[in-house]
Amino acid sequence: MVKIILFSVLFLFGDTIIKSQNKININVGYGHYLTNSENSTKIMSDKKFQSYVLYDFSYLRENLFGINMMIEYSFQKITKKDIIQFIMYDPSPNPAPPPLWGDIQLINHNIDFDYSARINKYFSFGIGPSFIIVNRILEVDTVLYDKLASSGIGVNGFTEFSIPFNSGKNYFYFTSKLKFRYTHSIWFDKGIRDLENYNQEYFTVQLLVGIGYSF
After folding, report:
1. Architecture per CATH, 2-72+100-214
2. What are the structural domain ranges in the chain?
3. How far apart (Å, rounded) are the C-alpha atoms in residues 104 and 60?
């Protein structure tokens, strides 16, 4: 994943024959799963993956060979406590040991590549492909740690509002963004697991706010 990000940033920062304007955003946001295939699995019962906090960084290069290109990375993690119970059986007359509870974590690394265009002075929009790396972790106290790693591809779109704090060529600005993203799994590090009828499908909506710098 790190290599993908570095390659993308080097591509966008590389020298071109066209002078361009650069923008960097650092955001925090609230997200909600409109669809999450994990919620339909039996292990989740009535505890669903729904809302989450995310952290986001984006870089926009305007007029890169005549178009505005953005790369954006975001991170999110949700933990569901006591999702599954393991009961220890002891046939001896000794008191039964206490049950063990398992927690499930869903960790997403999202990378979006977008074409961006301005609607007016304050609003812009973008659309493009998405790449996602997912770690689904089942942890039971200190006796079990099971991580399923996967990757997926999809599409995203956003509308962004920004307003500068000062005038001039280089300036800071406030930014707010509404983003939708759909992804579907394409690869699993399945090991000995049987994943023939299993897939990961996510459809999310995110609202982000943050600070940007144009230079």
Report:
1. Beta Barrel (2.40)
2. 2-72+100-214
3. 35
SS3 175: strand
Torsion, Cα of 185, 189, 190, 195 (10° steps): 10
Beta-ladder partners of 74: 56, 110
Instruction: Note the pTM of the prediction, 2 decimals.
Output: 0.81
CB atoms within 10 A of CB 158: 22
Rounded to whole angstroms, how far apart are CA atoms 88 and 44? 21
Lookup result for tokens 């390659």: 7
Helix, strand, coil percentages in the chain from 3-state DSSP, rounded to 5: 10, 65, 25
Phi, psi of 45 (to 5 degrees): 50, -125
- Residue at 72: amino acid letter: E
Q: Whose structure tokens read 């990757």? A: 151
β-pairing, 171-188 with 123-140? Answer: unpaired
More confident residue, 142 or 151: 151
75 or 86: which leads in pLDDT: 75
